[in-house]
Amino acid sequence: MAEDKLNPLDARIIRALETAPRSRVPVGFAARVAAQLPSRAEVALTPARYGQRAAMVCLWLLVALMLVFTHRAAGTSPYWFAIQSIFCAQFALLAVWLVVRDSFPTSF
Questions:
Q1: How many domains does the chain have?
Q2: Residue 56: inside a domain, yes or no?
Q3: Structural domain includes residue 22
Q4: How much is the pLDDT for 64?
Q5: ∠ CA 89-93-99, rounded to 5°
Q6: Are 66 and 91 a contacting pair, CB within 8 Å?
Q7: So what's the pLDDT on residue 105?
């Protein structure tokens, strides 16, 4: 009843807004689009291994520190002996970590 009082243009607008659009995809559309795409090159991922490099730098730094503080740790001071023991423990843990990490390869 309310549509009777509307002018014909308003009725057409309302009808157009209330009807769902019809979507049509032509046959073979996806194949045509896929044919136009450039071929993708195989991407090869190589790990950066920043952690291993940092661990190796730390190993060399610990060796240098142990050599520098060896003459102080050889004395009677328990302080320098404790520092030397900490350096040795860190060196051993880093070395074990590097060996274990290399024996189990990770896959991406």
A1: 1
A2: yes
A3: no
A4: 92
A5: 145
A6: yes
A7: 65
